[in-house]
Amino acid sequence: MARSGDRVDLLAAGLGPGPVREASASEISEDAIWVRAARDGDRAAFGQLYERYARMVHGVLLARVTVDEVDDLVQDVFIRALRRLSTLRETASFGAWLAAIARNVANDYHRRSVPEEQLTDDASDNEIKCGISKGDHDGSAVAILEAVMSLPDAYQETLILRLVEGMTGPEIAARTGMTHGSVRVNLHRGMEQLRAKLSSHSGSK
Amino acid sequence: MDTGNNQTENAPPTKSDDYLWDGSGEPDPEIQRLEALLGKFRHDRPAPVFPEIVCDRRWTFFPWRMRLFPALAATTAAVVAIAGLTFLMYGRKPAPTAAVAGWDVSRVAGTPRIGRKAISGRDGTSRLGIGQMLETDRQSRASLLADEIGQI
Fold this sequence. Notes:
Largest interface: A-B, 72 and 45 residues
Number of strands of chain A: 0
Mean pLDDT of chain B: 77
Structural class of chain A: mainly alpha
Oligomer: heterodimer
Radius of gyration of chain A: 19 Å
Radius of gyration of chain B: 46 Å
CATH class of chain A: Mainly Alpha
Helix content of chain B: 10-25%
């Protein structure tokens, strides 16, 4: 007999509510069609993939590099993906493959910019890690983003996709290739830790 | 240390978090405030103009590892060619006669034989190998030069 706790177990097993699963399945088959078309030289099909995945890529990068660099790196990720599209063997796992490329691009960015950062004495560790440029952004928004960046990596990425990019949990799972259960746990625990950080931060003022 | 959850599911959330999960249920004012503040960092750029996609259909029938095949074939062909040339240049040289163990035989008169082969010709010399027999008839004579012994 189903109890209230059973629902979460079903979600964790990837057996979430019907409509969400159906949408994911149709999206996956659409992805496969677009990937095949893009491989055949159809730029419009690749544009469709961009429209669907740009927010995910942006969020993954925002969890790792400076706000000012993210937009350029989003383009780098898609151009790198375009060049390597023929190497993608499982067309249905395009999202997870693209997320991996985005993480690699962020790592490459840090590798390239290490000498510059070492020369900059006044840059704090936190600024280097989360890379928030304070120039054009609201102070409280920057402070909240910094608090998100101080969380464990898996929580950072999931919370940024939810709170910054406005994606729902099922969307995050569908785009990144993570299971519903993992995304739900990351959102819940990450939000718990974020609330604690923000309340301690406001209490110390 | 809590490092987050990438793929495994640990203890599931106990508190209702439907709004955080998919925006359904009762809105959480704090999450709404965070969404409003952080939403200004959201991606809002249109799709760029992507470069021409070069079709790579030649390779779609092969596993990606098979792309090494042309390089492998070229390397094999080069190795075979070098081995062939080396054999042609050095492989057909006859073994030097000096290396054959035995005694030097010089014809003195007539036609002495080593086995079936007669020692004749201008120089009238040959070599008596191990196990071979030198034959002379009444008209034939030969001299032998043995290592460490001298002329016989």
